From TrEMBL:
<dbReference type="InterPro" id="IPR014002">
    <property type="entry name" value="Agenet_dom_plant"/>
</dbReference>
<protein>
    <recommendedName>
        <fullName>Agenet domain-containing protein</fullName>
    </recommendedName>
</protein>
<feature type="domain" description="Agenet">
    <location>
        <begin position="88"/>
        <end position="153"/>
    </location>
</feature>
<dbReference type="InterPro" id="IPR008395">
    <property type="entry name" value="Agenet-like_dom"/>
</dbReference>
<feature type="domain" description="Agenet">
    <location>
        <begin position="2"/>
        <end position="86"/>
    </location>
</feature>
<dbReference type="Pfam" id="PF05641">
    <property type="entry name" value="Agenet"/>
</dbReference>
Length: 208
């Protein structure tokens, strides 16, 4: 568990069903009256609301200008923004984070393809990524990927080595993560949370 200051760049662990294990870019607005809670503002998640009036006459209604979503979250769901790691390519088996549907999702590279433009000679790299969380393989442009890093208890970042994840072990680990994040979120009390209609990688859904 760490402490943060106003305007710190952070990432928030997805803490509703369908979002466990994903992270969303945000910044710290302020610490609440509770030592283990912060008000944060997401950088990619939006909500529609209109604010009129001032003070006690303030009225908030939906359907107007878009503003970034704010939420009160437990410190256990917050980590610093990871440092950028420059890479020129990814290899099969590399663990990566993929930016999709406004957040970062962990997966591993299964295939890499290069497409050369016969007119300009430029090469575009696409990486196929396997997601244990959804059991899907999806291809992405190279610039949608970053090196996967883990934030450790001693306050340092560790790059993940190339490996083949044991599927049975992942299911067990995923279950533990879901229970832990659900417990934290339930204990937080109020909080607007993530919209239930948001998407997960490779799955198209509609808001009802």
């Amino acid at each position: 568990m760490g402490s943060f200051c106003e305007e710190d760049e952070v990432e928030i662990l997805g803490h509703e069903e369908g979002f466990w294990g994903s992270y969303y870019e945000a910044k710290i607005i302020k610490q609440t009256e509770k030592e283990d809670e912060y008000l944060i503002e997401y950088k990619t998640l939006l909500e529609d609301k209109k604010v009129t009036g001032e003070g006690e006459d303030t009225v908030i209604t939906d359907g107007a200008e878009k503003v970034f979503l704010q939420e009160t979250v437990n410190v256990k769901l917050i980590r610093p923004a990871p440092p950028k790691v420059e890479v020129s390519k990814f290899k099969i088996g590399d663990e990566v984070d993929v930016f999709d549907y406004e957040g970062w999702w962990v997966g591993r590279v299964t295939r890499v393809s290069e497409i050369r433009n016969k007119y300009t000679g430029t090469v575009k790299i696409r990486c196929y990524v396997w997601f244990d969380s959804t059991g899907e393989e999806i291809d992405y442009q190279f610039d949608k990927l970053r090196v996967h890093q883990e934030w450790t208890d001693n306050g340092s970042w560790v790059k993940q080595e190339k490996k083949t994840r044991n599927k049975r072990k992942f299911v067990k680990d995923s279950s533990v993560l879901q229970q832990e994040t659900k417990r934290i979120h339930t204990g937080m009390g109020t909080g607007i949370g993530f919209p239930s209609w948001m998407l997960i990688p490779g799955v198209q859904q509609c808001r009802l």
